[in-house]
Amino acid sequence: MTTVTNGVNVQALLDAREVLKGAPEAAQFTWRASSTWRDGVHSTTTVRDFFGLGEERSHKTESVFEADHPEVFAAEDNGITPIEYLLVGLASCLTAGVASVAQNRGIQLRSVQSTVQGRHDIRGILGADSDVRNGFNDIKVTFTIDADASPQEIEALVAQSQKRSAVFDALTNPTDVTVEVA
Amino acid sequence: MIGAGHAGLAVSRFLGGAGIDHLVLERGEVGNSWRRERWDSLRLLTPNWLTRLPDHPYQGPDPDGYLSAHEVADFIGGFAAASRAPVRTGTEVTSVRAAAADGQGHGHGHDGYLVRTDQGEIRARCVVIASGACNVPVVPGFKDALPDSIRELTPFDYTGPAALPEGGVLVVGGSATGVQLAAELRRSGRPVVLSTGEHVRLPRTYRGRDVLWWMQASGVWDQRHDEVDDLERARALPSPQLVGTPERSTLDLNALIELGVEPVGRWAAVRDGRALFSGGLRNVCSLADLKMERLLDTFDEWARKYADDDLTDEPQRFAPTRVPASARLQLDLRGGEIQTVVWATGFRPDYRWLDVPVLDAKGRLRHVGGVVTDSPGLYAVGLPVLRRRKSTFIHGAEDDAREVVEHLTGYLAGRH
């Protein structure tokens, strides 16, 4: 097999899979974000620390995310809307999956582009129609992939990437969410 | 031997051939689960010409047909009689434990097994577990959250549509069981919703032959447990979407949609009396379509190299699964639309009687090709991909049984 360089250390992931099969407690991660209200509907959320492999860990740097609403919502547009962050998460998760699966299957990628489109009926959040849900009506992701692979193999990459995607699962399946006041 | 089903009796046949003294203990009668734990319309997935046990082929008038559950039980009974298997029916095993070795045990530390039954105790140097892979229906934990008004059935309770109240049915699971029950219930005039996660799509016939002819001829079914890429996954694979009917018709999701069955995604949770389904239906259908295409590619490649000239039918490709543009994500279970839920969510073996610590954290038997290496002298047959992909099919028992008996014979002779 030719050497494929998609930059994903698949061997490390496969090794981790084997180790964690016998150590499920080490596989328990907790991801965290901390948010502060600024003004209006503007908030700033930072992400740095997480827990995994049995101990507290940190990203190399703290990431800061501004969230606001656009001017058509009569807001100042200091950042993207919260629901758009879901699109960011989905696109980046599926893209990471495509790269990893391609590496594992010995498929050299040249470019991977995707667009994510979430259709949203805002009558839900405005309370204008109680039959309309608050969240997305649906989400459509379109990948354009240039790789040393047949169209069928590329389809299979994208399908497998969805199958192993944390964000795809989090969006398509219900999750138990607790919100409390400290 | 524990269990006088096809797998246990195949082992008995080889043990007899090797002159090894043995007993086959059976809680009910020969082929018990085929007689008592299957629904009325069930037929084998394999065509009759493939239905054979060691030196015991199908010899009836319809080689391309599919045996009904009762015919399977009779076929197994005929095999037991022909092999003069030493079966003790009506004998339920209540416990199997390692018998303490005399003196201070070391090494394996035991001297055979003590088998307790409701008819008394038996001491055995070896025990072969052949009690089946489908003893207990597996049902998701959220079943407790279902409204009381919903009637629930597992395939063990289900006999046929007449056993159900009128009204809508939610069939859960896209394996052979799920698609067969969904089709039958839909044909009875009931509205049917089928919830499915990952599934295995297959056409009933391909290029004029039964698809299982291809599985057999191309060698896919003979792939061994130590050759399979991901054995754990292969062992957990749902049964293929097939049904054995005289018309040899395909029963994939497209066929069900044609009948008016409504597909929805995997049932993920119940919240406030509502069933919540995964929004990932499209992807599980893509995965199944792609996997089927790869399998057909394998068949075609095999045919190019090896098939006889009489295989004249050209390669075929099938339409992708027609996933509804917007499958429902939730269904109100209190609204009256659904009266019955049928759990076709799989089965597991029952090892409650096995007092030897050889189960993994998920309750599965730890074995290598049927050899329970943690407890010498203990064996298993009739489990998914035990030694080959064909292991759980009737005709798959022969090769597994022969090899397990070879190992067992070596063990008794002190070679392992």
Description:
The complex is a heterodimer of chains A (182) and B (416). Chain A folds into 2 domains: 12-80, K homology (KH) domain (GMP Synthetase, Chain A, domain 3), CATH 3.30.300; 81-173, GMP Synthetase, Chain A, domain 3. Chain A is 32% helix and 29% strand. Chain A has 5 helices and 6 strands. In chain A, strand 2 (34-39) and strand 3 (42-52) form a beta hairpin. In chain A, helix 2 crosses helix 4 (151-163) and helix 2 crosses helix 5. The radius of gyration of chain A is 19 Å and the shape is globular. With 416 residues, chain B is an alpha/beta fold. Chain B has 2 domains: 6-135 and 349-412, 3-Layer(bba) Sandwich (FAD/NAD(P)-binding domain); 141-343, 3-Layer(bba) Sandwich (FAD/NAD(P)-binding domain). Chain B contains 9 helices and 21 strands. In chain B, the strands form 8 sheets. A 5-stranded parallel β-sheet of chain B has the order 10-19-11-12-15, covered by helices on one side. Chain B has a 3-stranded antiparallel β-sheet with strand order 5-6-7, with no helix packed on it. In chain B, helix 1 (6-17) crosses helix 9. The model of chain B is unreliable at 103-107 (pLDDT under 50). The interface between A and B is medium-sized, with 15 and 18 residues.
